[in-house]
Amino acid sequence: MDCQLILDYDSGKILARLEKGSRCLVDGVRLRLRAGECLALIGETGSGKTMTALSILRLLPRNVRMEGGSLLFRGQDLLREKWLRRLLGVEIVYIPQNGLEFLNPSRSIKRQLYDGIAKLAIHRSARKGKALEALKTAGFDEPEEILEKFPFQLSGGMAQRVTIALALCSRARLLIADEPTNGLDQAGREAFLQLLHRVFPEAAKLIITHDIAVAALCDRTQVLCGGKPMESGPSEQVLGSSRQPYTRALIAALVENGMVPSPPLREQQGPCPFYRRCPRAGERCLSAPERHAEGMREWWCSSP
Fold it and tell me: Against a cut of 0.85, is the pTM above it?
């Protein structure tokens, strides 16, 4: 096994149980992350990004199950739940999309930070200093005041910074951040990723985002559509010279590119999740998408 390989993940099929039958939410997503590497997972709302992250954390909703997948963290099988409980918040850290929903409303910020710090076997006498340091690093000018507050006393942005402070109270080897830069300008996006790289230089980082500008700051990008992989590889190649029509459509829809709309929907469904909107779709696209590879990138498409 590659000793630098932090995460080796295969989603298999992630299925939601419905009143009649089930629905496949994610199918065939494969992620491999090494120490110090940053991977962006991008796609539209509903493309399967967050569900992929929750499956890695074993936090899928009750009516959703992972079928036939695999999940290895530094060679340990995380599908054995007892391993994961020891690692969450210590070596595997999650930065959520909505800090207010993530924080425990009945516990002060101090208690929630201290809970995380306690997992690091830091003596009680040193916990306050560690908590204040984490809050200051996360962007609070007066961290003493934040310690005594409860989540309902925080704005959405403040709560998000607290979740970042919680992440800083760890020995993270894998960081999963779900839309962590919402509402930030370009300078703020860059500052956030620089903070993660500075504090956790050896950690593998999975950034869930719909923001192409954020993905461009990551080492690699993987594109999802309808829960299926469409393209992956070095970010500069995937975002700068895409081979997949869906990736090109995402980039064309950006404001700076004229917000090119998708073509009218076709009535017929195809095995490719982008088939009904793809301007290049033809007869060949009614068969399963073919995998193509070139250097360090790969993409799935049936059209020539």
Answer: yes
